Amino acid sequence: MTCSAGSSCGWSSGQRYCSWSGPDKTWALTGGQGDRAGNFLLTLKPQRENSCSVSQDIMAWCLEVFGCWVWVLVAAAQVAQPLLQGWVMYVSLTSFLISLMLLLSYLLGFYKKYESWKVLDSLYHGTTAILYMSAAVLQVHATIVSETQNLTNYFINTTASLFAFITTLLYILHAFSNYYH
Q: Where does the MARVEL domain start and stop, copy by copy (predicted)?
């Protein structure tokens, strides 16, 4: 096997390999030990475009889990101030549903078809981070107000505030990681 320009070939652990980049993917060709005639059995498989996509996937799933916990905890607490906690519920539930739609469209491969996927994803997560920050601050205010009332509601509101700030941080990290990669 000969290597063409833009590819790399060699031996690794007794196996022949060759990798090259195409217009849309990076491919790897690897082979086994070979048969009696010295012919190598080769397999062609695409490699991940970058190593950051695994961390992006993990971060997207964490956004869904923590965002879900925010609205579940706010819904479980006794509402002391409906206007404040109504905004927290609106932001967390809407963000959860839109993020779930974006995650599913990502898993279905729509990001490969459209060049503007990175811009859309960064703008959405940046805007949602700002809205989540306002919701987290309002949730903290509702927590402070519920401190003197019921201790169970206070603990639920405290946990919801913690998850709201963690979710805000994850949205910020996701927006910047998409922008810089």
A: 51-181
Q: Where are the alpha helices (DSSP H) in 18-81?
A: 52-76
Q: Is the pTM of this model over 0.70?
A: no
Strand partners for 10: 17
pLDDT at 63 over 90: no
Alpha carbon distance 168, 174 (integer Å): 10
Q: Quick one: how far is CA 69 from the chain centroid? A: 16
Q: How confident is the model at residue 2 (pLDDT cuts 50, 70, 90)?
A: low
Q: Widest CA span of the chain, in angstroms?
A: 83
CA distance 118 to 122: 6
84 vs 146: CA distance, rounded Å = 12
**Non-local CB neighbours of 111 within 8 Å, separated by 6+ positions:** 105, 117, 118, 121
Taking the C-alpha atoms of residue 102 and residue 60, their distance in angstroms, rounded to an integer, is: 9
C-beta of residue 28 within 8 angstroms of C-beta of residue 17: yes
Q: Does residue 42 contact residue 14 with C-beta atoms inside 8 Å?
A: no
* Amino acid of residue 103: L
